[in-house]
Amino acid sequence: MSTTVTAPRGQEKQQQEAPIGSRWRVLLTPLAVLLVGAATIGYTRFAELDSTEARSLSLGFLADKLWEHIGLTTISTVLVLAIALPLGVLVSRRWMRWSTPAVLGIANVGQATPPVGAIVLLAATVGIGFWPAIIALVVYSVLPALRNTMVGLQQVDAALIDAARGIGMPAWRVLAKIELPLAVPVILAGIRTTLVLNVGVAALAGFIGAGGLGEIVVAGVNTSRPVTLLVGSILIALLALLVDWIAGLVTKALQPKGL
Amino acid sequence: MTLWEYIASRSDMLAFQTLQHASMIAQCVLIATLIGVALGIAVYRNERATALATGTTSLIFTIPSLALLGLLVVPLGLGVWPSVTAITLYALLPILRNTIVGLTGVDSSLVDAARGIGMSRTRVLTRVQLPLAWPVILSGVRTATQLAMGIGAIAAFVSGPGLGDQIFSGLARVGAANALNATLVGVIGIVVLALIFDAVLVLVGKLTTSRGIRIHA
Q1: What is the ipTM of this complex?
Q2: N or C end of chain A, less CB within 10 A?
């Protein structure tokens, strides 16, 4: 008897982890982010800073960098989704199935590429600035997103697809009504990962002068100012936590009913 | 200068940095495996402790690597320590999570049977539960290793060891001679190392997975 209880328990736990953790964390995260953020910004207002620190920690500069960071993350994520979702659907069609191992293999090698390497390579070949950084971000995170779409579609029960075809649905309706809705949880989890990953990789864009909060960290190290370094790091961390939180809520809200 | 000439002219230094990178990752992942598995064993029976442990590690995991390195530089200074700490912390989450999933996935009737034939708790753990959970734990170690490779590259920014140094010296010389070569050597070196480590771990999995469950794994 106990056999039948244990196995599903393990699965349940995995599924619970996928959304956002326990209930208290739902409000705790934004509160903690706000608190630490306010304390950090407050500190830069009242502490005695030398001119180098003051320059990289002025309110206007911080706001600019934050805005650039959000821009880098959003634009690259939208581009990644625009590429990965249709491509994922395409390569998981029955007549494209032969390409699956090749695509997954490339995706695995791509994941082994260090993101900072991808960014610097782009800088060395294309040039420095905003758009090379966007290209690097897209190149880096398109593969995990693609893999997630494929895995999401693959795990849809083939019997359901057969049944849908059997009651006379054309292939595109099977895709729209059966496969995609059933794949949504996995795809959404993938989008959330992509988004959070991109906040982190966008921080590396600071290395190649593409803006973003990473520039504050780079400035902190280059000018040996621990305060600047700390403020930049804290702001990046807070942004990532906040983005993860928002994405978690959206993921929950968009979950198709009946799953 | 072509890529090959670049490699040939600096082969000693490159070999040293590659070795340094490999040994840094191997040590960090080893420490993370020991901590992760021990922590997993300690918490998997208690739901609250499990939630706390996975919650904390996934919080660390969400913090981007550059930010975590920056936060660690302030108390630990530049160099090896912040790099090693950051890599170990990142490697912890997949290992811990998979240890918990693996251990809770062990059929409880097997544990009952082992207890029934008179095995002690420790022996049940070492002879039944861990061997059965091992393939899952090992796949966590593989994920952790791959992550650690990429984060190891950023370590050079805080004067950490390894091939990241090539990438950052390429960055410092963008537009000048050898910038592309240095970056390429760093990136390709890390990718190759990642693939080698992964292959080794697959082999380790083949050799260490208990014979009775090899078909499932």
Answers
A1: 0.82
A2: N
Q: How far is B33 from chain A (nearest CA, A)?
A: 20
- CATH architecture of the domain formed by A65-212+239-254: Orthogonal Bundle (1.10)
Element (H, E) at B200: helix B179-208
Are B51 and A217 inside 8 Å of each other by CB?
A: no
- Contacts of A203-206 with C-beta under 8 Å, sequence gap 24+, read A203/A69, A203/A236, A203/B64, A203/B66, A203/B67, A204/A115, A204/A116, A204/A119, A204/B66, A204/B154, A205/A72, A205/A119, A205/A133, A205/A136, A205/A137, A206/B66
pLDDT averaged per 10 residues in sequence order, chain A, 259 residues: 34 42 69 89 82 80 91 92 89 80 79 84 83 87 85 86 88 86 86 87 88 89 86 91 89 78
Tally of CB atoms within 10 A around A119: 30
Chain B contact probe: residue of A6, A116, A125 with most B CBs at under 10 A: A116
Mutation test of the interface with chain A: which of B54, B63, B142, B198, choosing the one with the most A Cβ atoms within 10 A? Answer: B63
For residue B168 the two structure tokens come to 């950052």
Quick one: pLDDT at residue B23?
Answer: 93
- From the list A112, A230, A237, the residue facing B195 with the nearest CB is A112
Q: What is the pLDDT of residue A72?
A: 92
Q: What residue has token string 């779409």?
A: A149
Contact by Cβ (8 Å): B61, B90: yes
Domain ranges of chain A: 65-212+239-254
The residue extents of the domains of chain B are: 3-213
Under CATH, which architecture does the B3-213 domain have? Orthogonal Bundle (1.10)
Q: Tokens 């952790």 sit at which residue?
A: B144
- Mark yes or no for CB contact A241/B54 under 8 Å: no
On the question of pLDDT at B130 being above 60, the answer is yes
| Ranges assigned E (strand) in A50-112 | none
Do residue B74 and residue A120 have CB atoms under 8 angstroms apart?
Answer: no
Contact: B67, A237; criterion CB under 8 Å? yes
pLDDT at B35 over 90: yes
CA atoms within 13 A on the CB side of B110: 17
What is the pLDDT of chain B when averaged over all its residues? 89
CA B122 distance to own-chain centroid: 27
